[in-house]
Design brief:
Length: 145
């Protein structure tokens, strides 16, 4: 099971990526295993030296009872102090954002989030991305790659 944030690659240039653990409730991990999550406008923010992901929508578990989770709650990301310090220093620079790119399950069955440190693209950069994608598609179509 792997969910990726394809829109993020269109909206941002990414300098680096990190893999972080994510703190989840019992019903959240069950919803993730069934692939019910959405990255719409999700981002990461620092609060008291810790990194949280905001507006990551994990749907309520269909078989959950009164103990079901909130779909849009903040979720804490687990990184080392060194990684957190580096990310916080970079994210304070103008134009940098920390965006979740993928959610996947490790071999041990733990939920992981790949986050990227990125700078937002301008409109002309987005047009350039579309142009590159179309030329690659045309080359593959012509040469059957």
């Amino acid at each position: 099971m792997e969910l990726s944030n394809r829109k993020a690659y269109y909206e941002y240039f990414f300098e680096s990526t990190l893999t972080a653990g994510i703190v989840l409730a019992g019903t959240e991990i069950k919803s993730l295993r069934s692939g019910k999550a959405s990255f719409n406008d999700s981002y990461c923010v620092f609060s008291k030296g810790e990194l949280f992901v905001k507006s990551l929508h994990i749907s309520e578990y269909s078989f959950g009872t009164y103990a079901n989770h909130e779909p849009l709650q903040e979720r804490k990301l687990l990184l080392t102090k060194r990684e957190l310090r580096k990310l916080e220093a970079k994210s304070r620079e103008k134009g940098y954002s920390i965006i979740p790119l993928k959610i996947f399950l490790s071999e041990k069955g733990l939920a992981k989030v790949e986050i990227g440190l990125g700078k937002g693209k301008k409109n002309y950069d987005k047009r350039e991305t579309i142009k590159e994608r179309e030329t690659d598609r045309d080359v593959k179509r012509k040469y059957g790659i």
